[in-house]
């Protein structure tokens, strides 16, 4: 794509060249006067897209132009065909019904709050003194059922596990006779982890 070196004629020109650089054909875009013309691009079926901006009727804004050319540098007058726009998937687009059971449907901006992905899990005191009882504090347990909390030591061995009823905000855990070190508590609902935290037993 080339703009003629002429102060009065600033229309972009598309040239078709051979491998030696000889001009085989050319196409002048009919925009008066173009402000900017981008590089032409080829579509998957060998057609040429030419786009740019030209002065519009409003001096504060430019008009955008886009045209599609055939390989012979003629305007393509054939209507756009239906294409599969997902180039990574060769399958056709399939329409189906989507169940809204697990979807949040917002009907009022005042009622919207971002969905909480996990149950907040906190442990006090931190660090936990040896031969003491720690408190596990939960948030949002009403969102889940069949919550199980498992505690693992630093090498991944399960030390204890217990169930937490939906709606319970706090439980206690006796760590008497636990070895000093780093532990992790993981809350899960079924096979989904819904909260975790680390704690140290002194």
Distance between the termini: 73 Å
Count of alpha/pi helices? 0
Number of strands: 13
Give start-end ranges of low-pLDDT stretches: none
The CATH homologous superfamily of one domain is called: Macroglobulin (MG2) domain
Quote the beta fraction: 35-45%
Gyration radius from CA atoms, angstroms:
33 Å
Query: What is the H/E string?
Result: EEEEEEEEEEEEE
Shape: elongated
What labels describe this entry?
single chain; 4-stranded antiparallel sheet; 13 strands; mainly beta; 40% strand; elongated; Immunoglobulin-like; 202 residues
Describe the structure.
The chain starts with 12 loop residues before the first strand and ends with a strand. It contains no helices and 13 strands. Strands 3, 4, 5 and 6 form a 4-stranded antiparallel β-sheet that branches. It is 0% helix and 40% strand. The model has no long low-confidence stretch (mean pLDDT 76). The radius of gyration is 33 Å and the shape is elongated. With 202 residues, the protein is an all-beta fold. A hairpin with a 5-residue loop joins strand 1 and strand 2. Among the domains are: 13-69, no CATH class; 121-201, Immunoglobulin-like (Sandwich). It has strands spanning 13-17, 23-28, 34-37, 41-42, 48-55, 62-69, 121-124, 133-138, 147-152, 158-164, 170-174, 181-189, 192-201.
List the helices and strands and how they pair.
Blueprint: E1 13-17, E2 23-28, E3 34-37, E4 41-42, E5 48-55, E6 62-69, E7 121-124, E8 133-138, E9 147-152, E10 158-164, E11 170-174, E12 181-189, E13 192-201
Antiparallel strand pairs: 1-2, 3-5, 4-5, 5-6, 7-8, 8-11, 9-10, 9-12, 12-13
